[in-house]
Amino acid sequence: MYASSGSPRPRPRPLRRALVAAVATLGLAVAVATAATAPADASVPTPPSGWTQVFADDFDGAAGSGVDTADWQYDTGTSYPGGAANWGTGEVETMTSGTGNVSLDGNGNLLITPRRDASGNWTSGRIETNRTDFRPPAGGKLRVQARIQLPNVTGAAAKGYWPAFWMLGAPFRGNYWNWPGIGELDIMENVQGLNTDWATMHCGTSPGGPCNETSGIGNSTSCTGSTCQAGFHTYAMEWDRSTSPEEIRFSLDGVGFHTVKATQVDATTWANATDHGFFIILNVAMGGGFPAAFGGGPDGGTEPGHPMVVDYVQVLQSSGGGTTPPPSGNRNAYSAVQAESYDSQSGISTETTTDTGGGQDIGYIANGDWALYKGVDFGPTAARQFSARVASGAANGVSGLVEVRLDSRGNAPIGSFAVAGTGGWQSWRTVPANIGAVTGTHDVYLTFTSGQPADFVNVNWFTFGH
């Protein structure tokens, strides 16, 4: 924001399976809000077992009031004191602390609203946390997430809009000239009302340098189910110091799409960018280098008055390799649901996968096993298809069904498919199936049925379609 196929292997069923099931049920299950419909004002998720909440703001307060200055400070004007003009990006607005630009809506949301006066001058809002110490503990993790609806404006009317949810390294505060060496983590950036979420790490020197500035090390993905502008989505960054090499991972609605590893740059660059705390920023810029790369603006056709709506901001910390929290009541049926993100399960375990994208799969699955995924949103248009990424090293004659049930394991399956040996426990294929029409938000159970007691399938992810 500042600048812009496997061979068969033995499958001993682990004795720890019952313990894994109990931990998952008691731990991750509490991370899911009781209201699965994920309303405009959703509760800040309860931290799962192994995680501690170190900061949160639910933006509760009277309509028209400002943010809590015990937690946040306003950035005003067109630059930091003594810093680069136009916030270093070429944006054209003047930031204010007025409630016309930054206010609570009285329904548990923060509104950051760009406005244009009669002379064509733009104002908007930018706030940042007072705290500058957000970082993972040694050997642990930090997760920073927010549930946001981007300004609901598209096409020519959105020219110049640049909303963002991001972080800057603590050494920047008070200096304002040491970017990008001190590190920047863009958890969400969007321009021009496009249905695109960009995530980027900035570091090193500019221009060019080890982090390709001013572009940085980035990637993008699209919002599904509803566009980024038409609905709320959860944007998150997880900084993991429990792995080697250290990683910073970005996700949208619980689905990872960009990872930066410490080994992608030299050790000095990484240390300069990460060996300190960070602070969090929320803002809506107008114009500047990023919008210029996608057609420019704002211009006379740009519509003012469309806010970025922030439901909550939350920071979690784990002292070890805690399981990534699932999105609270906000799983998108039409994005890949990672199988290891279950809320509870029976009889299964997680393991490292060699499938494309890496991560983990669920395995050691046999007759009677199940996994629960709460709050899967199918939307108003009926889903009629289901597919899952599966692998099997089961012996000849061993097979079973992967079934989908809604809201209760006692309900009849809405669809299923059969799977037998695929050539190995890491020999992956995507298998489709038809399902009964589903709309709305439901808890989804994957249940597994077989005529034999042996393990018969691994699952990496699943998704739904129309």
Can you walk me through this structure?
By secondary structure, the chain is mostly beta strands. The chain has helices spanning 17-26, 267-274, 289-292; strands at 51-57, 72-74, 94-95, 102-104, 110-112, 115-116, 122-124, 126-129, 141-149, 161-169, 184-189, 197-202, 217-221, 233-240, 247-252, 255-261, 278-286, 308-318, 331-332, 337-338, 344-346, 349-352, 360-365, 370-377, 383-392, 400-406, 415-419, 424-438, 441-449, 457-465. 5% of the residues lie in helices and 39% in strands. Strands 1, 4, 5, 9, 14, 15, 16 and 18 form an 8-stranded antiparallel sheet that branches. A 7-stranded antiparallel sheet has the order 2-8-17-10-11-12-13, with no helix packed on it. Strands 19, 21, 24, 26, 27 and 29 form a 6-stranded mixed sheet that branches. 50% of the residues are buried. The longest helix is centred in the N-terminal third of the chain and has 10 residues, at 17-26. A hairpin with a 7-residue loop joins strand 11 and strand 12. It is built from 3 helices and 30 strands. The model is unreliable at 4-37 (pLDDT under 50).
